[in-house]
Design brief:
Elements: H1 13-16, H2 41-51, E1 63-66, H3 73-88, E2 95-101, H4 108-123, H5 141-155, E3 157-164, H6 166-173, H7 176-182, E4 191-199, H8 210-216, E5 219-222, H9 228-242, H10 252-262, H11 267-283, H12 291-311, H13 315-329, E6 335-336, H14 337-350, H15 358-370, E7 375-380, E8 386-391, H16 397-403, H17 419-425
Parallel strand pairs: 1-4, 1-5, 2-3, 3-4
Antiparallel strand pairs: 6-8, 7-8
Pfam families: AAA_16, Cdc6_lid, WHD_Cdc6
Domain AAA+ ATPase: 59-227
Function: Involved in regulation of DNA replication.
């Protein structure tokens, strides 16, 4: 082991010695809020026009915002919200914006408590110590709602509540939270509430009671995906702040933009590609970011997301996937759902796992296809009917490594799997 104790920075010295690539890589993170949002002016202006009545102490319409991941929805709402709060400091009406991420805060109790506690924090004097007005568990929901109304009345003015990933809240907890929030103005005298819901899922409204949907979607704004030239503009804006001048080859930004445009115009994907490309060049102690680094970054990001996806699968899905790996090991590049079922049942028998029906196995295969772990197609076998064929798109060594981390599949008994017997069974 090398002795790095002579340097105060020890092991990390060589990584910090020369900044050849980045000036500030943080501007390439998803949570960075730029002052200017390229190609979102129409949506920002529409959002501002809907919220403008708040500055004259009128209740703005509720808004539903739709769009795929990475289309600038959250960044635009943060920007307009900050502008609204700034403008209200010059007007007679107090306007506050409370942002909630419903992937984390996903029950009625927690949503109501978080809004009340956020307002309490905004109204607190800077010298006051931090506190929670409402505990995050333990009270009856009616009491939490009553405390929220009291807090709103004490604060006065207009409060805009932003429910980011609102679909996650509805799918987990139903629409009771939205029902109460969309009707809260009828219980208030000194305060007014407007709701902005943000969703990647255009179909989540199918889960809503028509009365809730009518109240919530008084206005709707759709954020379209970015195209490749628009993504180039976004990346160039960030690259000017993130990278040392001259380190990016001319092809890097267009390639990152083109690859992300194929992924439904996702600006987050484009930023990840650019950042990881720079990090790979940096780790090589290089002084240029090239097209080669973008290709490497794409492979790394896809591998990392695949590993995370596979590692969180239930055991039955991993066993189905392992059966496919066995088939590929047997030399089959393309295999059918029937063949997967035969191998799956043999594995399940060896490790004492409950055996699923063929129908359920087919459902799990469809889920693996939807997640991008495998590719499938339905083919006709004439009078023998139709069958589903599947195959792996990329090298399977990493997939097998992740699958066999499951204790059920890291089993000595699987060494008993007789490949020759399987060949006979599959004839």
């Amino acid at each position: 082991m090398p002795d790095d104790k002579s340097s105060p920075m020890g092991l990390f010295k060589k990584y910090l010695a020369n900044k050849r690539i980045f000036k500030n890589r943080e501007v390439l993170r998803h949570n960075y809020r730029p002052q200017i949002l390229p190609h979102r002016k129409p949506q920002i202006d529409e959002l501002a026009s809907i919220l403008a009545p708040a500055l004259t102490n009128e209740t703005p319409s509720n808004i539903l915002i739709y769009g795929k991941t990475g289309t600038g929805k959250t960044a635009s709402v943060h920007y307009v919200g900050a502008e609204l709060e700034n403008a209200s400091s010059l007007s007679a009406t107090k306007c506050r914006v409370v942002h909630l991420n419903c992937e984390v805060i996903d029950t009625q109790y927690r949503v109501l408590a978080q809004i009340a506690n956020s307002l309490d924090d905004l109204d607190a004097h800077p010298s006051d110590s931090a506190r929670n007005l409402i505990p995050m568990t333990g009270w009856p929901t009616d009491q939490v709602y009553a405390e929220l109304k009291k807090q709103l009345e004490n604060s006065g003015g207009v409060v805009v509540i932003v429910l980011d990933e609102i679909d996650k809240l509805v799918k987990k907890s139903g629409d009771d939270t939205l029902y109460n929030l969309t009707r809260i103005n009828s219980d208030l005298r000194l305060a007014k509430v407007s709701i902005i819901g943000i969703s990647n899922d255009l179909r989540f409204t199918d889960f809503l009671d028509p009365r809730v949907l009518s109240s919530l979607s008084e206005e709707e704004i759709v954020f379209p995906p970015y195209n490749a030239p628009q993504l180039c503009d976004i990346l160039q804006q960030r690259a000017d702040l993130a990278f040392i001048d001259g380190v990016l080859d001319g092809a890097v930004i267009p390639l990152c933009a083109a690859l992300a445009a194929q992924e439904h115009g996702d600006a987050r994907r484009a930023l990840d590609l650019l950042r990881v490309s720079g990090e790979l060049a940096d780790r090589e102690n290089g002084d240029r970011v090239t097209e080669k680094h973008v290709r490497m970054a794409q492979e790394k990001i896809e591998t990392d997301s695949m590993v995370e996806c596979i590692s969180t699968l239930p055991t039955q899905s991993k066993v189905v996937l392992y059966a496919m790996l066995i088939l590929e090991r047997m030399g089959k590049r393309i295999f059918t759902s029937g063949e997967v079922t035969v191998v799956y049942r043999e594995i399940a028998r060896i490790i004492d796992l409950d055996v699923l029906t063929h129908r359920r196995i087919t459902d799990l295969i469809s889920e693996l296809n939807m997640l991008g772990v495998i590719n499938t197609r339905v083919v006709s076998r004439g009078r023998y009917g139709r069958t589903k064929e599947m195959w792996f798109d990329a090298a399977t060594s990493k997939i097998e490594e992740v699958v066999t981390r499951d204790p059920r599949l890291d089993d000595e008994r699987l060494k008993q799997l007789d490949i020759n017997r399987l060949r006979v069974m599959l004839r």
